[in-house]
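Problem statement: downstream parser choked on a complex file, so we are re-checking the raw output for the adenosine-5'-diphosphate run. The parser issue turned out to be on our end (a line-ending mismatch), but while we're here, posting the original submission so the record is complete.
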Amino acid sequence: MPANEDARLEALFEYGILDTPDDPAFNDLARIAATLCDAPVAFINLIDRDRQWTKASFGMARQTVPRNYSICTQVIAQSDDVFAVTDLAADDRFADHPIVTQSPHMRFYAAAPVVTGDGHALGTICVIGSEERTSLEPEHAEALRAVARQIMALIELQRERTALNEANARLKTLVARLEEVSRRKTEIISDVSHEFRTPLTTILGYAELIQDESLEPTEVHEFAGDIVRDVGRLTRMMENVLDIERLEAGASRINTTTIDLVDLITKEVARWKSDDDTKHRINVVADASLPTICADHDRILQVVSNLLANAVKYSPDGGEINVAMSAGCATPEFRVEVQDHGIGIGPDSHGRIFERFARTAEAIRHGIRGTGLGLAICRQIIEGHGGRIGVESKIGEGSTFWFTLPIERARPFNPKPE
Ligand code: ADP
């Protein structure tokens, strides 16, 4: 065994050359070695942990033999230069070797180690012949050294080529991802500016109408109301943009108090029922004696309101919306579900819609307006409370948005005096 066997094996594995396919470039080098040394057979052998594996050969088929049969193993263990046995049959170390005792009855062997820049011998280039020789000619030894150097250079070159190919593939993936990000950014800018432009255009239209002095006071009043509504809408959109920035930057504090979530949700549903002129039927069911929880009242209200607004917006007028509240049995958590029977969401979008500006093709196809910010805000709020948020949905069948909040936080906060 070479003294630095572990490091040698590590170097060999790192080149990734073992068990690679037949390669004409290496076969040519084996042929050159055989021709230069006037030998009928040549092998490029690599010495693995337990076997000798042939990378290339000339004059005989490639073969794998156990390491204890390998003469080349002895070369890399005993010599860092050319090693020759002029008559294998007359040498005690090799006389019993099957390559000598059986066909092809080899007698002459010479090899040069294939050595890395760090001095690790990965294997050899060896030439063998069926007739003994008196000595190894110096020019044959020189030829073996030169071919061994060329084999090492080729191994290095192939490793560099593989690394280059891998880097190239990574680069291509990165470029594709960047292109996708850039395309998405352009799409977002166009969608969002459209969302902002629409109310502005309406405001301008109504303002121009009001300028018309022939309008009745009731009409002026009506148009002013429309302007106020659209300005409110613009303000909310601006607030959402700023809100998601603050939440994602962690710059928004959660002010927790003990809250009765059933009460909060029931009141919010009642408000929606009285405001909603699309006449959705909103039902609320809650498990008996649900605990209070510790959370930021306004932030949770914002989540509930957002999910209700979406359920109304993305389902047909008069549709049924069910809000359910329960406490987990397996885990101590409060669970809220908002189910609608609207346009639904395809499986590819289930995770994506919680990212900012993400909108589904389905929503766009139905011409339903939005900025794709509400759910991103909801996720930040819920995760900021240590909860989870998600959706189950099928296109055309409706969606169930759910979120959980940990109940541990509901325990009354009773700091013990120190
Ligand atoms: P917005 O509704 O303003 O676009 P949201 O962040 O609230 O923004 O929602 C992101 C996207 O998720 C929506 O654009 C829509 O495509 C989809 N979505 C949200 N809620 C529903 C729902 N209840 N039914 C179907 N699609 C929904």
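For whoever reads this later: The longest strand covers residues 121-129.
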